[in-house]
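Discussion board: Methods & Data

I've been asked by a reviewer to show the raw model output for two of the constructs in my manuscript, not just the figures. I'm not sure how much to include, so I'm pasting the format here to get opinions. Each protein appears as its amino acid sequence followed by a line of discrete structure tokens. Is this the kind of thing reviewers expect to see in a supplement, or should I convert it first? Here is construct A:
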Amino acid sequence: MLSRYNRVIEINGGNADISLPIVKFPPFKLRAQLIEKDPVVWLHLIETYVAYFEYLMQGANVELLDESTLDHLRLFLRTYLHEIADEEGKLLSLGINHDVSEQLYLLKGWIFSLIKKCGLLHLQIFGDSLWNLIKVYVRRNPDSIRGLIDGSLKPRINTQRVQLDKSYQVQQHLKQLIESGKFKRIDLRCVEDLLSAKSMQPNKFAENFFTANWIEILEA
């Protein structure tokens, strides 16, 4: 599948910079049109995305991406998380195709594996994108999501960036949703999963999340 890409490898100081740009995940309306008019093209596009992330997860490939490709990857992740999070809790009439569903499931898994491998800072996942990440993955992966947020789940790539606790950022985002009247039932469900879903290990996340300052913010 990767043969469809125009790969450019530059050797600089003994390191190979991989140029392998990725196009943004298509918005809902475009996906609906593809499914209705040309489902084969849509299936092939998803298969290409899957192959792309499989490739990035091999060895140190993701660490060798040049800056332009890394920027494209970050943009893809933001658009993907936005689109998939927007579908959570909704009944969508995009039609059911077994092959498409299977590839979307694989894509979702590979993307989460990459995020865990690289960490939030390296991929610049914060603000709306961080909450979208929670909405998409917290139900089935509460421990990993908590670890990404509080920084206890360390990246597996070679990075010098300190993994900061993002709990305050999540708190502020929830505060903005509530104050703007945009806090929905799906958001409430995600908060419940984030704080109370069963854990494979002692769950101190909720205890640390509910600080006195956070409670004062909610009561204000």
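Construct B, same format:
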Amino acid sequence: MITAPDGPFYIGETCEAPFKATVREIAGDTIIEDPSIEWFCTTSNGVIDAAGKITVNAGGEIGIAANYKDPDTGKILGVSTPWIINGNTVKERPRYNITGIVQDIYNGEPVCGAKADLISWEDGDAGKIVDTVYTGDNGDFILKDVKGGKGTEYKITISKEGRYNTKEIRDLFTDLEEDFDLGHIKLETSDRISLEEIHEGESIDLKVGEEKTINVICPKEWQREITLTPENDHITAIYRKNGQITLNGVKEGTAGLKVSAHGQELRITVNVERYGNITGLISIIERSESYYVNDTIHMQAKFFSNDVFINDADKKVSFTVFYPDGTVHPANPEFSGLTDGTAVASFTFPYKGSYTFSCTLEADEKYEEDCTISVTVDGIKPLEGQKITYKKEQQGVIGTYGESINAAEKIEFEATIAGADKHDLEKGWEVTSDDNAIEDYTVIIDKNCIEQKEKGLFDISGYIYLKPSKAGRDLNLKLTYRHTDHEEQKVYKDAEAKTTFSIDQKLLRVKGITFEDKIYDGTASAGIKEVTFHENDIAQNDRGKVAANIEGRVFQLASASRDAPENIEEGISYLLWEDEIEGGQGSTGTITLDDPEMNDNYLIVKDENIGEKGFICEIKRRPIYLKVSDGTREYGMDLLETQKKAEVLSCSGSDKAGLLDGDQIGERITVADTSLPEALV
């Protein structure tokens, strides 16, 4: 059996792959190893050698046959069936063209004069240059009449010495039979960009704000392609179109810079350092000894770095003002540029108090630290212009203690005061008394008497209603007006005016007096249990404070004369009441209040319904006990010592006649018992 190599078979060429024959024994079907074969063609258009390699001379079918010979005798032992090579596989070896356009990989421009080498990559001929062509003006080339077909393999190298790296193209040209277009072939440049005097791995050092120019080394035609890419905002980089780069340090730190041109990249490191610390001075120009509200001052601040003026008009200095109330506000202007290291600003004092002016030059990445300097102006004085006057210098008696706030006589005044507008004038009033004589007050502005003046001032009229906290004569009062609730925002000095007023005591009527049981003992005094007052006479806030204090708890009774025995017969007497005092005011001299302060506010008087004789005190007759065994009599223990023993004028148990120190028995003394010794003293 004959085994043929794969076609096609090319006319005029010897197929390197041989035909092979397999011989089997008839008996047993055993394959004979290394049989002796004699090859021959059955047609004239081919020749096959002893090794089974066929050489094709012409087209058409080719018959191949083999004889099996005895290796010793040469006798033909068997003949194979011819193998017919199909005429379709017998052909001329194909030829084809390879085309392409060579371009610059970065800008796509054609590369003229580049060399294209076609190199065989077949066994035995590997590395052999088969053909060489050069690109035209458009970068195009053509490799013509390239041997193709089975068993062919090539690679192409494209190069241009001194400008581009060689490009190798493989694995595309194996067993090709038809024309092949490589399209656009991109060449990478062999040129490189670099920076003058800066070697690979070195870095560039800058100060913040410093500028440095560096030359870029590259082909001239690349200069228009150079681009710069900083990796952060620590630097700026500008290409000047003449092969130069201008670097500027923006803020402290490290930045990478990528320089690109014609597909090439160069990366460098830029280190940015800050200048030295900032120092500064701030002062008030032509400072005055004192300032008032609305005065304007002018400030100047100077800044240095390493003892050199910072002259940078783009460097902004901020001016801030700390007001007396602690709030922070901008000066005018808030920001100022530096000229010869100096920044200036102005400020007009809006309120009284102390102000601190602060000026800051921020580091802004150029200097080591921020620099803040400050100056303080103390004691800005408020404006004069506010005043208050009373229509009456002294007010006299304006009311009675305990009255409501609107019951007292009003105190009238006129004033010149400041305010945001006329609707703002009812605020800011305060009424005080060093005597603590005022419990409450109301200040009322007559809205029909408001006249606006200049500088935010108004002429007004008004009056005060008081609720006094105590009675008294010539109590002091101070009326104060503040045009703002905030002491730290005062423009005008407070307006103040003082006067005096008097408050009458409130009449406190004694409604009733409760006496202790009184047994006649020859004295004109009686013990008191309780004194009650009319509730309506007591001010609401004093309900817990108004209680009677009775000196010694004893009151002197009105004298019961012997010429007025009716008092004794009736067994009553009267409390002496003294309220006939000049002006209708005074004290009983006997009844006061427990709270001493309340005695100043109240005048204790007898209720009008009590009558002329005052409060009734019933006096019971005094019992006596008689002992008649020795002709003497002894009296009850509550009698005076001198009255305990006396001569008995009559000793009968029922005899009630006789005198005891002028007192008749029976009129003031009752004989109770004559036989109970335990009752005797």
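Answer (T.O., handling editor elsewhere):
This is acceptable in a supplement if you add a one-line summary per construct. For B, something like: The two ends are 181 Å apart (CA to CA).
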